[in-house]
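Notes from the 1:1 (GR / supervisor)

We went over the backlog. Supervisor wanted to see one worked example end to end before approving the batch request, so GR pasted a single chain during the call. The sequence is below; no edits were made to it. Supervisor asked that the structure be written out right there so they could see what the output format looks like.
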Amino acid sequence: MPVSTAAGHPYQALTPDVVQDALASIGLYGDGRQMALSSYENRVYQLHLEDSSVVVAKFYRPGRWSEVQILEEHAFAAELMAAEIPMVGPLLVQGQTLHHFGGFAFSVSPSRGGRAPELDDPDVLEWVGRFLARIHTVGEGKPFAVRPALDLQTFGIDSREWLLAHDKVPLDVQSAWEKASAVALDLIATSALCIRATGLKGLKPLARDDETDDEQPTDALRSLRLHGDCHPGNILWTPLEAPASSLPGPHFVDLDDARMGPAVQDLWMLLSGDRQQRTRQLGALVDGYEQFRRFDRRELALIEPLRTLRLIHYSAWLARRWSDPIFAINFPWFGSSDYWTGQVQMLHEQIEAMQEVPLLV
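Structure output shown during the call:
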């Protein structure tokens, strides 16, 4: 059921009573305790139930994904959990994982605790790398049928054109940002190795190859189902000293951005610091990763292009969501001339980074 646009923004109608009633509609009765969790694209709540269990309810932003696309995400999560990978996926309630109430689509997952992973610890990175390899092994089993790919067109070109068409870049910075973003996207599109793009018309599909670990890779890079947004906030870490009832190590959450793309997309967002630090971190990740599957070193040349695409896409995402009051509250710095001047500077830095020698492991 569509949400009424008279509410002003998609979530104005999602009151605490509606959240409780939504769960009650599928037989889950809350005891009144409800806490909003950090989420901007969707609305996510931790709820205590009358049977003393704790669940997390996720209300999907209306109009972002189709029901078929959401169910494809749920199916991927189910595959990962069936492979004993610590992915926190939706529960099967009354025979289904996706439910509807009051114009909202929602799912319910078990509540899992954990802290941010210590990404300066090589043992932690190696552990995360092992599970990323296992996620990708499942992910390459078959492609997504309806979820989109991570590509130059949707992340870069479409985002840039939307920002300019809707006058989201202040006039005093617009010319500089327009030029810098065009140079950056041209560089991505014409890079010798990059993501197999042609001009500014978007990416060609990343074809899978069937070589074994002992064979030389062909020209095509692998494209597989990814987590897609594997930043540290989407990994819950349970330390070794935790109670025996808690499985130690990483737990992956939030497949909302799962899509087709190169494996390195799920690695580069875990890197930080200067080149030496990033090289050391990447080495630990790949050491763990290659305990389960080969990592194609050619994908290291995609790190900076992918970072650049995310930079442009992120600005467009914020601008597209600005009518939602939670964005103005949490991102008060967005949209000013200072913000866009900073984006121009970062684009220039990315243009330089994309012309440097890629990280080596």
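Supervisor's comment: The chain is about 40% helix and 10% strand.
Batch request approved.
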